[in-house]
Amino acid sequence: MKTKLIFLSLLFLSFLNIKAQCTPEITSPRLGTMFPDKVVFCNTETETLSTTQTYGSYQWYKQEWDWQTPNTNPWVAIPGATSQTLTINGTDDMLYYFKVEVTQADCTAESTPILADGYAYGLPFMMVDLQPGTFQEIAPGEYNVCEGASVQFNDGFPELYGTHTWFSCLPGSNPPSSSDPCIIPGETGDSYTATTSGTFGFYACTEYCPDQCEMLSEFAFTKLNFGNWDFCGTLGTGETKPKENNLSVYPNPASQVIYIGKESDKKYTEVSIIDMSGKLIQQKKDHRFSEAIDVSSLVPGTYIIVSKSENGKVFKNKFIKK
Question: Which positions make up the signal peptide (predicted)?
Answer without folding.
Answer: 1-20
